[in-house]
Design brief:
The chain is an alpha/beta fold and 560 residues long. Helices cover 27% and strands 15% of the residues. The strands form 4 sheets. It has a 10-stranded mixed beta sheet, sandwiched between helices. It has a 4-stranded antiparallel beta sheet with strand order 15-16-17-18, with helices on one face. Strands 3-14 form a two-stranded parallel sheet. Keywords: Calcium, Glycoprotein, Hydrolase, Metal-binding.
């Protein structure tokens, strides 16, 4: 045991000293794994091994559908390409069009309409968070003995201490609470004068870590430290939610090397950020091998939503972008890499949604899903690992009752079944229906990132038909949403509108409160963090109760 402690200590020290790992620093060739060697991983793994797999969930931020090498991108992603090629590529995989919705659905296994987060994102100044009555994935994994760690972007609210990651099932948390911020200084301004620091270790501002390190590299170093200090014979859940490649577009200089030829400055910066992210995932994978986790691990990679063309992202040839319910906003890059997969090196074209990870991972972890939890996700492990049919036949992309209503929408346009002014989208088998205002709907070809800029997009711009508020597509036959079939198949439209209506009956009220001036970081030592004090509320109610008691006593005396 003494040898184990010394080795683990030396490992942490070396990580702190040198930061990143590389193939060379491990003495490994690209094709060689720790499993083929004796050494540190084996010694650290002394003791009875767990049958429960290590779960590593990596969530990229705003990565476009095209922005991975194996989807034809000019941006090189050798790590992602290799991991995906040796695993299972998810080529019919859906997320939500924005940050908070995707994260909330991953961690609860529920659609937005069932958590109250169906509108937009959680803003820094809003007294809002993932409702506390929702059981989370890390809480369920802890029940069956997992050590749970989160590194990266939270974006599920923090106005109360109870909303923080460490109160929602994570043993440790290192990262940011907000949706974006400076990659080096970790400062974020929500509006003029409302600015603060946003880097946390557990429940406190991580001032000690404010060394000007680029967040992608800093988060990777933290992951390496966690792996070095944990016993690989005990199951671990690592949720790594990188800030990259979300704006602001920042990257260390060396990653621009291969992309000088990209004229569009936003695309060039974005490419450098993605190159750094790819290297980071390489280093995470190497650490898993070095410290003895890899052979019993499941690595899941996913983007949280589509790319934002104005910020360098590309979803070509899909339609639309981040923030929309067109395929470019919700169809994501995703794959599973694991020695435990049965059908390695395959492509899964079955329907998979981000809510499916909750029941899938709990089942793999040998956990129990309570009967009273009404999940929207399905266990899709056999679909991914063995190539079986997906149990999922539909996806409610969302119903947002407070999004800007479509001017020409009406109950009449929805055959008396649905008000088409409301923004909604649903997928049932091959069919996809959109109503209301689905958002920016252009196709943005790769040429758009040349010096010519937006002028090159004109051939792909959409001329809106007056009064249109319903669209129907056969996504299997027409994944790029070029041919609207709503007029040709009114019966299919009616069926999908009825399904929307059924879902809507189960929706909970939208949680989207106005901003709270007490959220200003200036009132919290210059840090973004919990501002709603439960104690103050109790004191006030206790005071009012005391005052009422005194009044009652006075009235009694008077009566006597």
């Amino acid at each position: 045991m003494l040898a184990v402690g010394v080795l683990a200590g030396l490992s942490v020290l070396s990580l702190l000293t040198y930061g990143y790992l590389s193939w060379e620093s491990l003495g490994l060739g690209p094709g060689e794994t720790e499993a083929t060697r004796t050494g540190l991983g084996e010694e650290l793994g002394a003791g009875a091994p767990s049958s429960q797999p290590h779960i590593i969930f990596i969530l990229a931020d705003d990565q476009g559908f095209r922005d991975v090498g194996y989807h034809g991108s000019e941006i090189r992603t050798p790590t992602l390409d290799k991991l995906a090629a040796e695993g299972v590529k998810l080529e019919n995989y859906y997320v939500q069009p924005m940050c908070t919705p995707s994260r909330s659905q991953f961690i609860t296994g529920k659609y937005q309409i069932h958590t109250g987060l169906q509108h937009s994102i959680i803003r820094p100044t809003q007294p809002n968070c993932l409702p506390l009555d929702n059981v989370t994935l890390p809480q369920k994994l802890k029940e069956v003995g997992y050590s749970t760690h989160m590194v990266g972007k939270w974006h599920l609210g923090f106005y109360r201490r109870e909303c923080m990651p460490t109160q929602r099932g994570f043993d440790t948390f290192f990262g940011s609470l907000l949706g974006s911020g400076d990659y080096y200084t970790h400062f974020k301004c929500d509006s003029p004068g409302i600015c603060g620091y946003d880097l946390y270790e557990n429940d406190n501002a991580a001032w000690d870590h404010d060394n000007g390190i680029y967040s992608t590299q800093m988060y990777t170093q933290k992951v390496q430290q966690i792996l070095a200090s944990h016993n690989p014979r005990k199951p671990i859940f690592l949720y790594i939610a990188y800030q990259a490649v979300h704006s602001p577009l920042q990257a260390p200089g060396k990653y621009f090397e291969h992309y000088r030829s990209i004229n569009n400055i936003n695309r060039r910066r974005y490419a450098a950020m993605l190159a750094c992210l790819d290297e980071a995932i390489n280093n995470v994978t190497l650490a898993l091998k070095k410290y003895g986790y890899y052979e019993n691990s499941i690595i899941i990679y996913s983007s949280d939503n589509g790319g934002q063309p104005m910020a360098g992202g590309s979803n070509w040839p899909l339609r639309g972008s981040k923030g929309t319910y067109w395929e470019g906003g919700i169809r994501a890059v995703g794959f599973v890499h694991s020695p435990l997969l049965k059908n390695k090196g395959s492509v899964c074209k079955e329907l998979v949604h981000i809510t499916d990870w909750f029941p899938t991972l709990i089942t793999l972890a040998e956990g129990q899903i309570d009967e009273d939890i009404q999940l929207d996700g399905y266990d899709i492990w056999e679909t991914i690992s063995e190539g079986r049919r997906s149990p999922r036949v539909d996806i409610l992309h969302n119903i947002d009752p407070i999004y800007t209503k479509a001017k020409n929408g009406s109950w009449a346009a929805g055959y008396g079944i649905w008000n088409t002014a409301i923004q909604s989208a649903i997928r049932v088998n091959h069919w996809k229906l959109l109503t209301g205002n689905p958002g920016y709907s252009d196709w943005v070809p790769p040429q758009a990132f040349s010096n010519a800029g937006p002028n090159r997009w004109h051939n792909e711009r959409v001329s809106w038909s007056a009064g249109k508020t319903v669209w129907l597509f056969n996504i299997t036959a027409d994944p790029y949403e070029r041919v609207d079939l709503s007029a040709r198949y009114p019966d299919v439209v009616k069926q999908l509108l009825r399904r929307l209506s059924q879902f809507n009956k189960t929706a909970v009220p939208v949680r989207y409160p106005p901003k709270d001036p007490r959220s200003n970081p200036k009132l919290n030592g210059g840090v973004w963090g919990p501002w709603f004090k439960e104690d103050e509320k109790k004191k006030k109610s206790d005071k009012s109760k005391g005052a009422n008691k005194q009044k009652k006593n006075k009235n009694k005396k008077k009566a006597n």
